[in-house]
Specification:
The structure is a single chain. This protein is α/β, with parallel strands linked by helices and 373 residues long. It has one domain: Vaccinia Virus protein VP39 (Rossmann fold), CATH 3.40.50.150. It contains 8 helices and 15 strands. Strands 5, 6, 7, 10, 11, 12, 13, 14 and 15 form a 9-stranded mixed beta sheet that branches. Helix 4 links the parallel strand 5 and strand 6. The termini are far apart. Keywords: Methyltransferase, RNA-binding, S-adenosyl-L-methionine, Transferase. This is Ribosomal RNA small subunit methyltransferase F. Belongs to the class I-like SAM-binding methyltransferase superfamily. RsmB/NOP family. InterPro entries: MeTrfase_RsmB-F_NOP2_cat, MeTrfase_RsmB-F_NOP2_dom, RCMT, SAM-dependent_MTases_sf.
Length: 373
C-alpha cells in the first residue's frame, strides 16, 4: 500500500491497531476472506441446488458465501454479510401484518441494502392487500442510476413501489414534489416512515475492499484526501449527526431507525449515537436481533448446543451504563417468540478480528417514542 507509514499514523491516532489492520487488509487482498451474494427476487430459484453455503446467522436476508477469487454465480448480486445485518436490524418481519408499510433509505446508492429490504419484505407479506412504499435518497445521480439498473433486474411485484430521488438527505423535505429517477416523472412521498435506515457516508476504513478499490482505481492522492485528513473526518461526523437527526424526525412514533457505518472510529459510531441521545428525549436504544434460538434460526436441524454458532459474529457495544433504554419494545411476534434478541443496541462487525469473515460494520438500533394515548 502506498503511504503505509502515514496511514499507520492515521490508524494509531484513531485508536485502531495498525498491525492487525494490515494483516486483515493483506488477507482480503489475497482473497482469503469470503465474499457474499444474494439473488434478485425474480431469480430466487437459482438458489436451489447451490453448493455455496447459506449464511445461517441471518434470519431475514437469504445470503450465500463464496471463497477465493471465483466469480459470483450468474444473476447473483454482491452484498457483504455485515451490510445484510443492517437490513436484519430493521426487524422487517414485525411489519408484515400492516396494510401499508413505508421505509426510507436515506443514503441508498448503489442499492445493495435497499434491494435486500424490498426482497425481504416480499417474503414476509402475508396479505394480498399489503402495499409497500420504499423511498431511496442519495446525492449522487450517477450512483442512483446504478441503483435503478439493479432495481430493474430485481423484478419486484406491483405491491412494492420504489421511488429513487436525487437530493441532499440532510435537507430532505417530504412535503415537496420530486423527480423519480425510475421513470423520470414527478412524484410525492410519505411524510413519515415505519423504518428508516441511514447508512451514512463515513471514513470507510472498516470496508477493507473499499480501501483496496480506492488504492487501485483512484490512486494515492484520493487515498490521502479521504483517510489521512482529520478535517475530513471532523466534517463527516457533523454530517452523520445531521443525517441521524433527520432520520429520527422522519420516523413515525413507535418506528425504528437503524444507523450504520463501515468505520472503525468510535466518534463516527457510538460517539454519534451518544450525541444524538443526549440531544433528544424522544429516542431510545433498542436491542438488536443478534441471538438465535430454536424458533427463529434458519438452521432448523441444529442441536441446542449449535445455536450459539448462528449468532451474529459481532462485538456488542454495551451502552446500558451510558444510554437509556425505553420501557417499550417492538412486539415479539416475529421472528423470535422467545424474545432472544439480546441486550445490545449497538454492535461492531470487527474486520480486524482473526476470526472475522465480513467487512467492518457498526450498527445501532433506535426506537422513536410511541405516542401516548
Amino acid at each position: 500500500m502506498n503511504n503505509e507509514e502515514a496511514f499507520r499514523r492515521y490508524l494509531q491516532d484513531n485508536n485502531i491497531p495498525a498491525n492487525k489492520y494490515f494483516q486483515a487488509y493483506n488477507k482480503v487482498a489475497a482473497g482469503l476472506k469470503p465474499r457474499y451474494f444474494r439473488f434478485p427476487h425474480k431469480n430466487l430459484t437459482y438458489s436451489f441446488g447451490l453448493t455455496h453455503k447459506r449464511v445461517l446467522w441471518l434470519r431475514d436476508v437469504e445470503l450465500f458465501a463464496i471463497c477465493g477469487k471465483k466469480p459470483l454465480p450468474r444473476n447473483a448480486v454482491g452484498l457483504d454479510a455485515a451490510s445484510a445485518a443492517a437490513v436484519e436490524a430493521l426487524r422487517l418481519s414485525v411489519l408484515a401484518k400492516q396494510a401499508h408499510i413505508s421505509i426510507l433509505d436515506m443514503c441508498c446508492a448503489p442499492g445493495g441494502k435497499l434491494l435486500a429490504i424490498a426482497s425481504t419484505l416480499i417474503k414476509y407479506i402475508t396479505t394480498g392487500d399489503a402495499k409497500v412504499t420504499i423511498v431511496g435518497l442519495d446525492s449522487s445521480y450517477r450512483r442512483l442510476k446504478v441503483c435503478n439498473a439493479l432495481l430493474r433486474k430485481e423484478g419486484l411485484p406491483s405491491e412494492v413501489l420504489v421511488k429513487l430521488i436525487c437530493t441532499d438527505s440532510t435537507n430532505f423535505d417530504p412535503s415537496e414534489t420530486f423527480k423519480n429517477i425510475i421513470d423520470n416523472k414527478d412524484c410525492t412521498v410519505p411524510c413519515s416512515y415505519d423504518r428508516v435506515i441511514v447508512d451514512v457516508e463515513c471514513s470507510h476504513e472498516g470496508s477493507l475492499r473499499s480501501v483496496l478499490r480506492t488504492v487501485k482505481y483512484w490512486g494515492a492522492r484520493q487515498f490521502e484526501y479521504r483517510w489521512l485528513n482529520q478535517n475530513y473526518i471532523d466534517d463527516l461526523v457533523e454530517t452523520q449527526c445531521m443525517l441521524l437527526n433527520k432520520a429520527l424526525d422522519l420516523c413515525k412514533p413507535g418506528g425504528m431507525v437503524v444507523y450504520s457505518t463501515c468505520s472503525l472510529i468510535d466518534r463516527e459510531n457510538q460517539g454519534v449515537i451518544k450525541r444524538i441521545l443526549n440531544q433528544r428525549s424522544d429516542v431510545y436504544a433498542h436491542p438488536l436481533p443478534i441471538r438465535q434460538c430454536e424458533c427463529c434460526t434458519v438452521a432448523t436441524n441444529a442441536t441446542k448446543n449449535e445455536f450459539e454458532h448462528f449468532d451474529w459474529p459481532a462485538e456488542g457495544v454495551d451502552i446500558k451504563s451510558e444510554y437509556r433504554y425505553g420501557d417499550f419494545r417492538l412486539d415479539s411476534e416475529g421472528p423470535c417468540k422467545n424474545d432472544s434478541s439480546g441486550s445490545f443496541c449497538a454492535v461492531l462487525f470487527n474486520a480486524l478480528s482473526e476470526t472475522s469473515t465480513t467487512d467492518g460494520q457498526f450498527i445501532a438500533s433506535l426506537l422513536k417514542q410511541p405516542k401516548t394515548e
